[in-house]
């Protein structure tokens, strides 16, 4: 299993010298795991794009956010509180905001509750930092492969269920629950999903209807297929996981 690790070299140090807002990245993100950060971003993609020139959604596009001036994404309507927050998105400020958004910026429009684990916040910030005209890992990103025997022992055996961390409400905890939960609860309660029972084709049509009639953004691949696999397996017509009243 290859883990993407952020390593900062000469080019990165030059970047810090030219951009003071990024000067604290080296110490905080030296060992961050961007692969884990990518997974954590699934909690964000329903409201944010991250690609260059990506459109604003419920939240602003996040390309280049690390070190960027606060409330400066063109075309996005920021809350007065965020405009007043001002300054730049240093790692320290991003960390505080991701921990408790509504405590750090009282009056923010972002409904996200926050990430309690420091490791999660660091990994997410590191991942965000790779999307920039001057990526955080410029000229020095490396992939470290664990020895083959360690990799083999780290992989779950066939039939084993990997531990899935998180609170997914009434949804069945199984592969794909995280992607499904974060995509769906951006707009509504997970109970709406848990109470349904559809074939895979039915769920596919439901997603298309949400896009065409309800204004939901298309779910990108491979997430769309992962969500359909999860729903077709655990919320099919036989309703094996229909929630019973407490």
UniProtKB/TrEMBL annotation:
Subcellular location: Cell membrane
Pfam families according to UniProt: Cytochrom_C (PF00034)
Record-annotated Cytochrome c domain positions: 32-132
Secretion signal, residue range per the UniProt entry: 1-23
Location (main, coarse): membrane
Record-given protein name: Sulfite dehydrogenase (Cytochrome) subunit SorB
Superkingdom assignment: Bacteria
Stored PROSITE patterns: CYTC
SUPFAM superfamilies associated with the record: Cytochrome c (SSF46626)
Keywords: Cell membrane, Electron transport, Heme, Iron, Membrane, Metal-binding, Signal, Transmembrane, Transmembrane helix, Transport
Bilayer topology annotation: Single-pass membrane protein
Organism: Nitratireductor aquibiodomus
MF-aspect GO terms: electron transfer activity; heme binding; metal ion binding
GO cellular component, one term: plasma membrane
């Amino acid at each position: 299993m290859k883990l993407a690790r952020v390593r900062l070299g000469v080019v990165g140090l030059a970047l810090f010298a030219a951009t003071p807002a990024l000067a604290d990245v080296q110490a905080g993100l030296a060992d961050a795991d961007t692969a884990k950060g990518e997974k954590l971003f699934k909690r964000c993609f329903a409201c944010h794009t991250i690609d260059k020139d990506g459109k604003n959604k419920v939240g602003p596009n996040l390309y280049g956010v690390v070190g960027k001036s606060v409330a400066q994404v063109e075309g996005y309507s920021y809350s007065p509180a965020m405009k007043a927050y001002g300054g730049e998105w240093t790692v320290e400020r991003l960390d505080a905001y991701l921990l408790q958004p509504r405590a750090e910026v009282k009056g923010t429009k972002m409904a996200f509750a926050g990430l309690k684990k420091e490791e999660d916040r660091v990994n997410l910030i590191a991942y965000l930092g790779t999307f920039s005209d001057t990526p955080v890992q410029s000229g020095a990103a490396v992939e470290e492969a664990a020895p083959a025997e360690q990799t083999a022992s780290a992989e779950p055996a066939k039939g084993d269920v990997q531990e899935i961390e998180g609170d997914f409400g009434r949804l069945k905890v199984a592969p794909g629950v995280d992607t499904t939960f974060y995509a769906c609860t951006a707009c509504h309660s997970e109970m709406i999903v848990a109470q349904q029972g559809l074939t895979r084709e039915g769920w596919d049509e439901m997603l298309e209807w949400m896009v065409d009639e309800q204004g939901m953004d298309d779910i990108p691949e491979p997430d769309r297929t992962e969500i359909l696999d999860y729903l077709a397996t655990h919320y099919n017509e036989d309703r094996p996981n229909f929630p019973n009243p407490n």
